[in-house]
Amino acid sequence: MNLLYSPYRLWSVFRLLLSFYLLIKKKERFFGITPLSPEALARTINQLGASFVKLAQVLATRNDFFNAQYLSALKTLHDDLPAMSRHEYDNVMKRAFPTFPFVQFNPIPIASASIGQVHEAWLDEETKVAVKLRRDGIEKRVRADIRIVSLFNRIFRPLFSHTTRHSVESVISEFAVMIVQECSMNQERANLEKFSHMYASSGVIFPRPYAHVSCDDALVMSYETGWRFDDREAITKSGIDIIPLIDKLVHFYTDQMLVQGYFHADPHPGNLLISPQGELILLDFGMVKRVSNPTRIAIIELLRAANEQDYEAYVSASKRLGTVAYDAPTAELAEFTQRMFEIFANDSLDSSSMQELAFQVLEQTRNLPFKLPQEAIYILRVSAIVEGLGTTYIENFNGIKDILPILQRNIPRALGMKDSLLESIIDEIKHLPDDLHAARETLRRASRGELVVELSHLQVESIKQNIQSALRPIVVALILSLGAMGAWMGGINELAYGMLGAAIMRLWYR
User: Structure pTM?
Assistant: First the structure.
């Protein structure tokens, strides 16, 4: 445990997080300490291990936080680590399998990452499985790292404006939730089971979990065979037509992110295989994200409003999404909206990549008091990864040309509409009695003065900030007045008059 909180480790985390904060704030130094160079930053992250590699992977999507040199350094970080020691391996195996269920088990892992490592095994002579073992002590190390990061975040918190502070905290909160969930093999198995059920008709193959021999230290799954999606040479030699598979991949991720709102958030080439039968296989369900229905609808309406250049709809969707505050200044809001419209109206988008579009959008928010919620960040990240996979085989493949039209076609379905006009009319007729009852109940409550208006958490947060801003000078003036009274009672009249004058000035210039 001492190693988890050693002075050297604490100092390394402090230097790393201070560098992040200085870079985000565009400051050259803090009490003489300058940010780490891109190379030193990447080296420090690798030395600190799993938690900080995961944090860097989240931060690597934030072009509004870092410049190109630092983003390049963050993107060089890989989640590949040496295998567990023999002692650690034995500890995990004893906990995971008190009764050994395998007829054969290969102790040499075929893959080794920060959270776990994967082994080949056989439940019987014909059933080959993949066994993902959780690293020994990884959950304890991760929770210790979260405590350290949270501590330093509270220390640095006063350095940030309200909007920037919440944007940084959303990243840290997202990182904490994500990595703790990834440390649980039970959680990954639950993700896999839910994903397999939800997308059973997608035409994509998922591993089959063996729950009766799995636990929180080990996930046992069917062994899926195939080539990595980016192994162009092997796939070409096999005679498989990759173009329909790319089309399936794009449609599949569009459906996940903006129609169903439940998506696999780490589709890198190692997690996507092409089987010898020409089927798409998806692996590793440790990072599965859910987009809440209000957020998903707000993102869709934001895209549609930007494409149609509908100012009112765009502002409304932005506020509900949390991109802009409910009390954002009108002039800056108009400037922000105009910039977004210029990006989407740009004729060169057809030759731009999804990554370039994401960076353009984030660049526009760099110096404005707005933020991009983590759900949108993950959607942009996944879109860029999928686009990168497409460019492996199609030279002119890009997200704008190939993905946005799919989004536009799926907007009605994503918003809950039916495939045909007749189905929509029938659906509306079915809901008509409920709608009439709701309207009658609303009128009845309004007539009795019992109508309740619900506010979103974003609106509540805005009201809270306004109240705090209004009360702050009053509280300060009250404290000064009490101090003046104490000074007067103590016979220090000059101090009493000074404090009373300060209280009056604080109220006057609030």
Answer: 0.70
